[in-house]
Amino acid sequence: MTALVVLVVVPPLASALAVAAGARARGAGNVLVAGALVSFASALVMAVRVVGDGHFQALGGFVYVDALSAFFAITVSGVVVLASLGSAAYLRAEEDSGELSGFQVRIYYVFFAVFASGMLASFVAGNLGMLWVLIEASTLASAALVGLEARAPSLEAAWKYVIISSFGVTIALVATLFLFYSGSVLHLSSNERLTWPYLFAHAHALAPTSLRLAFLLAVIGYGTKVGLVPMHTWLPDAHSEAPSPASAMLSAGLLNTGMYAIIRYQAIARATLGPRYPSNVLFVFGFATIFVGVLFMVRQGNFKRMFAYSSVEHMGIISVALGFGGVLGLYGALLQVLYHAIGKAVLFLSSGHLVLGYKTRESAKVRGVLGSLPLAGGVLLLASLAVAGSPPFGVFLSELTIVRAGFAVSEPLLAGFFLLLLVIGFVALTSTTLTMAAGEGPGPVVAYPRRSGRVLAGVPLLVGLVVLVVLGLWVPVGLDHLLMHAVGALR
Amino acid sequence: MPVVLQVLQSLTVLVGAPLYVGAISRAESIVASKRGPSVFQPYRDLAKLLRKGASVSDQASWVYAGAPFVVFACYLTVSVIVPIITSQPLPLAFLADLIGGAFVLGLAAFTMALAALDTASPQGGLGASRATWMGSLVEPALILVFFTVGVLSASDNPYLMNHAVRSSPYALVLPTHVLGTLAFFMLVLVENGRIPIENPSGSIEISMIEEGRVTEYSGRHYALMRWASWMKLFLLSSIFMNVFVIPWGLGNAHSLAGGLLAIPVLAGKLALCGLAIVVIDSSFAKLRFFRIAEFLGAAFLIALVGVITSYVVSV
Amino acid sequence: MQSLSSSSIDGTLLTLSSVGILLAAFACLGSKLFNRYVAYYGFQSVLLSFAAAVVAYHYDSAELWALAVITLALKGIAIPVATQRLLLHRLDLKRDVALSTGLSTSLIVGALLTAFAYLVIEPADLPHGVVAASVVPLSTAVVLLGGLAMVVRRHTVAQLIGWLITENGVFLGAITLVATFPFIVEAGIFLDLVAATLIMVVFVSGITRRLAEATSSELRGLQG
Predict the structure, then answer these.
(1) The complex's ipTM?
(2) pTM
(3) Residue A430 is part of which domain span?
């Protein structure tokens, strides 16, 4: 099992080694894709083992895998697979056209590898202090990706990103300290007092006042990472200025990593303080987040920014689902995590095609994509419908589950308000992408992808789309088991 | 016996103040590699000024003529109510607590400002307006400083404060007390026009604050004004040392020997305080006038943080 | 293991040094010249490593001694010197003119934040007579002051130092509240801190090469 954990976490780093050995964009990209596939396969095996044998623990709790970790590892390693396929194509094109120097390409692969490994490692870290360290490390690596192009706007975005999220993560560190402190009455060693299974088992004995503070600070601190309003200000900048595959990783990977930390803290807080307080905190942040995300999507001229605000909206949706709680709420939240991750990864990757083809990020200048870049246009349209929550795609299913959860815990008003916001978000997102895909206007500046990269660039889009449709029609038995185990681990 | 001590205490202040100032200016000269005036020079100045007659402007009213006596009396009053050589209250100490003492000092400043305006000389007006502006910033900080020691002793009586600190020396290193001490020292510098605020040996009339107010005075009146301002330095330094820094070494209210012995001890303490003043005087430059507000703001802030830290720490 | 009591000598030293750390944060907030700003940060870190050494001495813990030494070497010496050399000298930064409020105003706001920290961290939450009861509110205040410095100062270098001040505040809270924090986690935190500082330094120099003043008032391209 330990070997399996290593196989989940380490393979993406292979591309960093390849770069160190002198590989160029093509070679490093291939190594990255291979590593990501190994990770993904190992994560699947890990999930099967965990569902079969229960949780796994090693190195005094520093490594801890339960169904929830396995679920997030699958989600994020899946995203890494899609994004690394996208990176291989995108960076090859950028290097060929001279937009990025060889040095920048090497930097990209090194930090992409660290970023991916850091995220995957944070899911298998049982120690909540170590979780903090890994999340901060992956944030820093991703900041380097945001600032990669070294143009004034991307440096600005990277600066905002690194300074705001570092401050937020510092607050999360304070939360970790208070969590540690709240367990000072327990007869546990100092490592165990930060380790999830021990904390969760002894949650009833934790000091309530400091735990209350710890939970609030954790939601604020990790919420900065997740993009909860009002700590979201860096998010649209960073996601729109990063190279598109990195945007996919940020939106579909890193946000979920922050959410994973919040889910863990919420489970402990719920066990100690009862469901009311954590739910209220998550409702306040969640609804504010959906509201602001939706409003900013309505009149957004830059399509990458619009997708970023859509991510903000979805993070709000997940928080509200966690707030509703109960089996349905948690189940819906986790489904939403998975579907949003795939949908948003696909959406950002297709936006990469548009950026490379049209050399602009303004949606008003992109028209008639279906005709000029049929693959990207079709995927853009379908993926935006999917992310907005139209059937038969998965997000519809998960949002339906969340609304049901709202009615189940007898919060009809909140659930109704939630629905209303979702409708506005749906209209805002799809009306923009519809005109981009179908309208009439000048064609693209260059045709992307070129013949040689077509397969590489097209595969992640199609694979992601197929997965979205399949999962929307039918939740596989294995996934259902995994989710039920994950929900069970939190209750 | 307490009456004798009471008189002895005021005499100490009256006689000691010029010596203290003389010693400080001598030390500053030595630091600046000059020989400097004798430490007894202030006495000679006083003797000379007291022999001379006072010339009074024909525009000035009785306020001008009366002010030096009021000011002098104010400082003399303060000298009977604060712990200078005894740690127990002397017969007249009931007159006022520390805040009352601050009021008396305020009265002196007010009288000086009135007198400075009375002659309608521009120098006096400038000095008075500046001093009053600074005074308005000093007051809140001073009150907060009293709170910081008040928190420890649950009192605003200087004797009780002295006693509280003395009986639990641990209080000396409490954050509250340390911050209060620091803020009070800054205020001592401001009140006496020492270096970050103004140059005590400066002679540029336009930048004078403390001296600007008394620039019209001459002869006997001037002697009283100077003497009063030296007493102020002496008094504030003694309070600083006896209440805040070293609350030991004071006599009790019933033994003359104890009181007499306290005088050389006090001299030692003042030597320390004077040394600190000399170091600051010779190593910093005068602040621009509008930066003074920042200096006082810092003193206020330090005292405020001191009061806040007392919220949690209790002795 | 009993907690550090506030009336012991160790506890007193710890309290005093944390007051010093708070005052250093105020000094940072109130200084206009960049080199003073950085110097006060260095001074604060030296005090912090002293505080860590006191805690290490009290608990006789080799790990905490190591932390104290690392703090001194990294935060007290390496980071201030590197900032001076790599940023201030090379970019020729002297006075910080990119303030969004006056210095006095920011000091007053800082005092209010300090009061706020004391109100939030209710002493009732912490056992009486334990040194943490007096230090944790102080460290919270330092965290808030660091944040305030990041808000008030618009120059990127100043924001970087503001963040480091915040980090110092958290560290101070950590060593007093939970002296037994697992060492491996602390080491990880340190690594992250160093990496973050390096990345920020790279960004700052990149931004300065692109923009004239590198203040966030110029960083206005991305909105909406």
Answers:
(1) 0.89
(2) 0.84
(3) 2-489
